[in-house]
Amino acid sequence: MNRRYFILGAAGLTACVRDPRPRLNVYNWSSYIAPETVPAFERECGVRVRYATYESNEEMLAKVVTGNSGWDIVFPTHNRLAPMRANGLIAPLQHGLLPNLNHLDPRFRAPSWDPALSNGVPYMWNGTGIVYNRSLSPPPARWADLWSPALKGRLTMLDDPEDMLGACLKKLSLGFSATAPADLRRAEREAIAQKPLLRAYINAEVRDQLVAGDVLAAQLWSTTAQQAIDSAPQLAFVYPAEGFPFYCDCAVILRESRRVELAHRFLDYLLRPAVSAQIVTATRTATANAAAVALLPDAVRRTETLYPPPEVFARGEWPQTLDPATQRLRDRIWTEIKSA
Amino acid sequence: MKLRTSFLLPAWLWLALLFLAPFAIVLAYSFLTRVYVGVAPPWTAESYQRLFDPLYLVILARSFAIALAATALCLVFAFPAALFISRAARFKTLYLQLVMLPFWTSFLVRTYAWIFLLRDTGLVNTVLQALGLIHAPLPLLYNDGAVLLGLVYGYLPFMVLPIYATLERLDPSLVEAAADLGARPLATLFRVVVPLARPGIVAGSILVFIPCLGAYLTPDLLGGGRTVLVGNLVQNQFTTARDWPFGAAVSIALMLIVTLLLIAFLRRESEPLA
Hints:
Structural class of chain B: mainly alpha
Order of helices and strands of chain A: HEHEHEHEEHHEHEHEEHHEHHHEH
Structural class of chain A: alpha/beta
Distance between the termini of chain B: 43 Å
Number of helices of chain B: 14
Strand content of chain B: under 5%
Oligomer: heterodimer
Distance between the termini of chain A: 57 Å
Helix content of chain B: over 70%
CATH topology of the largest domain in chain A: D-Maltodextrin-Binding Protein, domain 2
């Protein structure tokens, strides 16, 4: 680098540091926003947004738990809100600053995890079900079908203790968020019985192997499954008959934020039907914003993987926050299953 | 302070900031109590008591077995390669560059490449089927063999380079002397070359064994998450299980075991040959 460029670079850097515009810090899941979402907000409000992404709730929590992470807005999954609130991490939502809240789907206006919507704005949601190759006959319809010897070596389950044990619990007609040790042990025996049939415990990476036809059936999140289906029409998705979990990621303002008002402006911006519809179109997810859904093309709205019809939706359950003792027992059981 | 000792200052600073400080933090975590995310007082040794659970001892034993197997396989592949490169009359630099070439790409990307090679519709199975050698795809991916392959592939250069370094310095006249005294080539190899290359073999084995023992990426990606090695156990405690004190205790215990083994091993190595 010659000296002129160095000076230019240094000047550019100083310019950045001196930028007088207020800065909002937004930390979100990866692939959860449209490319134009943030720049449009910056132009409209004359602010800068520092935007970064994470891959798991734990990755985000490990940072914000310090109370001086530098982030203003994060997007935890619904069952992380209560413990975050209990740990003093969340600034309560001021509904007066969120006029667009009335666009929310009625199903998300008083959710079980946050009845007064005081902690987070429901953003996007998805469920866990079975994605399978249409060549399977009969097609799987229940979790129990994933214990069929015919699938040996062509079947995968999620590498996630909550979802994996949850599927075993639902197969036994027990609650997804069961806490009784005896129930969890029964689920463990189901998991160990299924293990010889499994190709792998694997998450989103299974997508390629479903598309290639290596894997014929997989436990998978609906959003990821839809991405696979979009690129391979021989695939289909089903929400299992015994019941299944839904997860909703919620936009939360952290208590450490010093720009609470600007943060509310950003959340209200995300709640605008046009903005939300743009995000959903770019990311192929399901929004909790009913007015945004109304703006989507019919074909998208009728994608049953993303927007299951009411009778399917009714079978879903929203996983609860687990107490520490249950969490520890579940982790131990998970390690035992993997070691078996 | 003498000028000469002050040359060590940057190294000490580096060690203090980037090794000792994080180590102290992990040590402190291992004696604290778990909260929703992170750690808090009171101080306790509970995490260490949990280590003696047979479940975790089995995981530790399995990790040792896999790391030992990977080290042995690396040695088998690396020694002839190092010998060949050290004896090559031409292209020596080229061969060494080739050994180091994989480092130009991220380990993660290279591990994913193995998935594409090994899976049912991957290159290996497709070619074998096209040649008519097999009729159904072989289950190459998601088993202990795939994990071992990934580890050997990943750490092979760490074995080749130290062995090459000792073989390169080996005085050729010693080999000639062995031949003059009537040793056949194989006898020369095992009674002269291998013993003289011992420092390189020891260094290479340590460089391969230790990272293999803590590996978590390869068992996860190529093993399909079907087994837990100690690296996965630690990773899981810091992620989904959110039990940082236990994760820290497993790390400290592992470090302690490896250090003790290493000390015992190196002490034996430094004894004069009987």
